[in-house]
UniProtKB/TrEMBL annotation:
Belongs to the acetyltransferase family. Keywords: Acyltransferase, Transferase. This is Uncharacterized protein LOC113215502. It comes from Frankliniella occidentalis (Western flower thrips). Residues 4-157, 170-329 form the N-acetyltransferase domain. InterPro entries: Acyl_CoA_acyltransferase, Diverse_Substrate_AcTransf, GNAT_dom. PANTHER family: DIAMINE N-ACETYLTRANSFERASE, GH14572P-RELATED. GO terms for molecular function: N-acetyltransferase activity. It comes from the Eukaryota. CDD domains: NAT_SF (cd04301). Pfam families: Acetyltransf_1. Gene3D superfamilies: 3.40.630.30.
Length: 331
């Protein structure tokens, strides 16, 4: 396997990537299987600007027309750390496992993350998947098990219902550059509530990844104080995610309302606005994470959210800064 090459996927690889996605679905015991095909992969990865995902592939050394592995990734934003790599899929066909191909794919994505100055890399893993041992040997921690983070999902029908709910009397609008300092204040309030420490994000990070780039890594909605429009009392940060089962998905990174303004349906208004964006951009569903002790779980469940950590056993993993660099530099 000395001639192994991990390369960027090309448009003509999409049919083979579709086949490998189906293999992964079979391995992960997903009876419904992927709902996207090669045409969707072509559109979302090669026809859109910016693309919804990026992909590395490995050619079959015995048949150049075949692929034996792939990794799909994209850049997102974490309000505690800033720019983040998200690894959606990594897979090697069974015949070629234990030949360091998975390691090569994982390293390639880590190298891209370091190159793009990502603070960490996240991905989800089924709790029975033996690949957990591989990830942990590369410095990954199971933040579901260690910190209590659960993955929630709102399906398309529930998103439509949320988007059609009654409008709020509060001003709910897109964030402006002048809001960045106040948004950072609210981010730190949320961090204090979730007991996650000081955010590493600065006003400059928010400006850079939202206002100063051609393709923002996130979007932000804010709520104004009715008595002082210069003060913000709530915010939500969201961005497009990509799922190889379903295609375009919305990811709700943060939703937060200042404690003095809770019980006034401001959270509903923020959820509605994000749901509207999801429906407008044809997202099939919306994912987000919630720490297991947070009573907001009841609010999300009332909106139709399902805790898929409990129902499907998905765990969130993270490879953090120094460990990400070690993976990237691994010989």
């Amino acid at each position: 396997m000395s001639s192994l090459v991990v390369r960027d996927a090309k448009r003509e690889d999409c049919k083979e990537v579709e086949r490998l996605i189906q293999e992964l679905a079979d391995f992960e015991r997903m009876p419904d299987g992927p709902q996207i095909d090669a045409k969707v992969l072509e559109r979302d990865g090669f026809d859109l600007s910016p693309p919804l995902y990026h992909c590395y592939v490995v050619d079959d050394p015995n048949d150049p027309s075949k692929l034996i592995g792939y990794a799909i990734y994209f850049i997102v934003f974490g309000t505690m750390v800033g720019r983040r790599m998200y690894l959606e899929d990594i897979y090697v066909t069974e015949k070629y496992r234990k030949k360091c191909i998975g390691n090569a794919l994982f390293q390639k994505v880590a190298q891209k993350g370091v190159q793009l100055k990502c603070a960490d890399m996240q991905f989800i893993v089924l709790d029975w998947n033996p690949a957990q041992d591989f990830y942990k040997s590369r410095g990954a921690c199971d933040v579901t098990k260690e910190e209590g983070w659960h993955l929630f999902r709102i399906d398309g029908e529930s998103l439509k219902k949320i988007s059609e709910s009654s409008e709020s009397s509060y001003v709910v609008r897109d964030a402006k550059r002048t809001d960045c300092k106040d948004v950072l204040r609210l981010i730190q309030e949320l961090a204090d509530f979730e007991k996650t420490g000081l955010t590493q994000v600065t006003v400059q990070d928010i400006e850079q990844d939202f206002f100063d780039c051609d393709h923002p890594t996130f979007h932000c909605i804010v709520v104004e104080d009715q008595n002082d429009s210069s003060k913000l009392i709530g915010y939500s940060i969201y961005y497009n995610h990509y799922g190889t089962w379903t295609g375009r998905r919305m990811y709700l990174r943060d939703i937060y309302v200042n404690s003095a303004y809770r019980g006034k349906h401001i959270g509903d208004a923020l959820m509605q606005k994000v749901a509207q964006r999801a429906v407008e951009t044809k997202c099939v569903d919306m994912d987000f994470i919630v720490v297991d002790w947070n009573p907001a779980k009841d609010f999300y469940k009332a909106k139709g959210a399902t805790d898929i950590t409990l129902s499907e056993a998905w765990h969130l993993f993270c490879v953090r800064g120094d460990d990400l660099k070690k993976v990237a530099d691994r010989k």
